[in-house]
Design goal:
- With 155 residues, the protein is of the alpha/beta class.
- It is built from 5 helices and 5 strands, in the order E-H-E-H-E-H-E-H-E-H.
- Helix 3 links the parallel strand 3 and strand 4.
Amino acid sequence: MRVSLCAVGRLRQGPERDLLDDYLHRFARTGRPLGLGPAQVIEVEDRKGGGMAAEGALLARAIPEGAALCVLDERGETPDSPGFARWLAAWRDRGQDAAFVIGGADGVDPALRARAERVLSFGPMVWPHLLVRVMLAEQLYRAATILAGSPYHRT
């Protein structure tokens, strides 16, 4: 099962990039024996200033064909980490890849959000888009450790 993180904007070198790369590496290493991963980051940029609709069109083209779509949105579900791990396991068990979409400053285009199988929220607070990528990558790694029975996630 391949995992795609499709996001508006470019993540430059720095501590956020280092954390993202570290968690994605951990996810690949831990998830591989479980049939999870690797994960790739697909970044899109609306250079013409078309707003949310243009970003939505770019994101829609970035989503791999047939992938289960999960949009990150503050109005989405707030599963606990074991629940999130069950989402991943269910997609894997159905033979699907997964695509997680992170919108721009104004969020995800409603038409794209309507296509999502799941809408995920990291809570009602607003998080910087650069940190959301890192938080998602950490939860992917945590999900893999939960499914592997590792003590990383303690309940």
